[in-house]
Amino acid sequence: MLRRLVRRLRCERGDGLIDGLLVLGLVLLVVTVTVQLLLYAHARSLAVGAAQDGARTGAAGGSGAARANDVLAAGGGATDGLHATSSTTDTTFTVEVAGQPPRVFPVGFALPRVSERATLPVERYPELERRP
């Protein structure tokens, strides 16, 4: 009876299925991590573009934060956690876009925050150039 049990435990039937399931789990993990990295890179790229466009609009006299938020809204779900703020000094206009990037799964490791900033000099024209 003991010999039968040992023979049965040494049998390798079904090993291919178990190996296949392990490899499938590894492939799914790699795909999930890759998709998460791509989502992070996409959110960061949209944040850079929104900050630059907002700074350009704000330096020309428009509402930079509103323009940056419009660009973020056009980004779809990848930018839901990002928000733009602006600040101005006598000579510069700055737009900062910050927030959490999207996640593939809501639980798991913490992703670094996305934080991008663009600063441009404020455009000022002499009084004589403003007149038509």
Write structural notes for this entry:
With 132 residues, this protein is an alpha+beta fold. Helices cover 52% and strands 17% of the residues. The protein contains four helices and three strands. It has a three-stranded antiparallel β-sheet with strand order 1-2-3, with helices on one face. The radius of gyration is 27 Å and the shape is rod-shaped.
List keywords for this structure.
17% strand, 132 residues, 3 strands, 4 helices, three-stranded antiparallel beta sheet, alpha+beta
Topology:
Elements: H1 2-10, H2 15-59, H3 64-74, E1 82-88, E2 92-99, E3 114-121, H4 127-130
Antiparallel strand pairs: 1-2, 2-3
Helix pairs in contact: 2-3
User: Can you give the helix content as a percent range?
Assistant: 40-55%
Put simply, the count of helices is 4
- Structural classification: alpha+beta
Number of strands: 3
Quaternary assembly: single chain
Compressed to H and E, one letter per element, the order equals HHHEEEH
Strand percentage, roughly?
A: 15-25%
The largest sheet is: 3 strands, antiparallel
- Determine the mean pLDDT: 86
Spans where pLDDT lies below 50 across 5 or more residues: none
- The strands making up the biggest β-sheet line up spatially as 1-2-3
Label the overall shape.
rod-shaped
End-to-end separation: 106 Å
Rg measurement, Å = 27 Å
